Amino acid sequence: MEKQLIEAFEKLQKREHLLRVARHQMQLGRITEEEFRKREAQILDRYRLTLGEQRAYDLYLRMKGKRNSK
Predict the structure, then answer these.
(1) How distant, in Å, are the alpha carbons of 5, 20, 24, 36, 62 from that of 31?
(2) How far apart are alpha carbons 42 and 17 in whole angstroms?
(3) Could you give the count of Cα atoms lying within 13 Å of 44 in the half-sphere of its Cβ?
(4) Which of 4, 52, 55, 70 has the greatest count of CB atoms below 10 A from its CB?
């Protein structure tokens, strides 16, 4: 489970970085909004979490929430 959690974090980090870069390019006018939407869909599809990774990440969030509520 720990390996899947690490893989989930890596995918989420890569996905967020690439989305941030694409947003920045759109804001600077280097790409159109249409091109941004295409890239966004490609990034989200490429870095989609597997079922195991999603479960591990959800479990992590629940455990983190329990620690913070004490």
Answers:
(1) 34, 13, 9, 7, 38
(2) 14
(3) 6
(4) 4
Q: How many CB atoms lie within 10 A of CB 53?
A: 21
Q: What is the CA radius of gyration of the chain?
A: 15
One DSSP character per residue, 39-62 reads: HHHHHHHHTPPPHHHHHHHHHHHH
Q: Is the pLDDT of residue 70 over 70?
A: no
Dump pLDDT digits (tens) for 2-54. Answer: 999 999 999 999 999 999 999 999 999 999 999 999 999 999 999 999 999 99
